[in-house]
Amino acid sequence: MNLTTKTRYKVYSGITGSGQDALIDVLIPMVSDQIAKYLRRDLVATTYRSWVNGTGSPILRLEQWPILAVYQVSIGTMTAGYIENTGATTKRASVSFDGTNLSLMSINSSGTETLTDLPVATSKVLSSLKTAVEAVSGWAVTLDSADYEGEPSNMLRPLYGAPAYDPDTADLILPDSQEPVKLITEDTIELLTDPSAPGGFGGDSIVRGFDATPGIGSGFPSGAANVFVWYRAGYTLPSDASGETPASDGTLPQGLALIVNQILTDVLSSTKLNSNLQSESIGGYSYSLRAAANGAVASAIENRVKDLALYKAATL
After folding, report:
1. CA 235 – CA 254 distance, rounded (Å)
2. Number of domains in the chain
3. In angstroms, rounded to a whole number, what is the distance separating the alpha carbons of residues 132 and 98?
4. pTM to 2 decimals?
5. Could you read off the pLDDT of 92-112 as tens digits, one per residue?
């Protein structure tokens, strides 16, 4: 991920020669990565399938922005089936799903641990995920209906360390019917359906905590990871012309692009200095060292925290 390009940075800094090109090429991804980590955001336009916490309000703020498209919002859930370990020598077993891998963990009577990670990218629907799970010794999947076989695996609600050995089973939870929403700011959506109206949540969902009176209690019900949102958010990044790829300014805010170039300049300048140096004077020469050296990139970012605050992710 590069938040600026060599050509754009050299125009900004007034560099005309090529003597520093190799160093700039190295520094741009380093600086870009550290800025993104400080902002706690995925800046590159990406599609997300997220289970988020309901707020008890019709307004929901999403983790990533700017929101480019919303493909699905679901409030209700449905249990598609469950996973269990039926191994004769199993003593403990658990299932985890982080949105990318379904992880099967078991311990047998001799204390041997077995961990198997099954990527949903290769088991895209529940029927193929079921086949992959049952190829692992001792594991079985039961789907409540054949209708669930074609449901997408990557929409499963995350779970961590769910017990899956007799008498416990790990439920496979999917989002239910879609709800209409509208975008009200670059990071916020609003629910348009009144949950108290007939069919307000669609399907066979059971939604608790709402008053039957229209206008009372309507919104995303409060809860932990109880709202499914499938959306796309982020920026297209600048690029220079290369081969068949045309140059592009991207959509990164100009203010953020300026800060990136400023930080890159600070870091580039620091390559000529001792990064441990805090201050230096000429008359009656003296110098002092930093109490703790954070490194050139971290120090440069720290000097720009007020400027970066506008683009930093808020704590949800």
Report:
1. 12
2. 3
3. 17
4. 0.81
5. 999 999 999 999 999 999 999
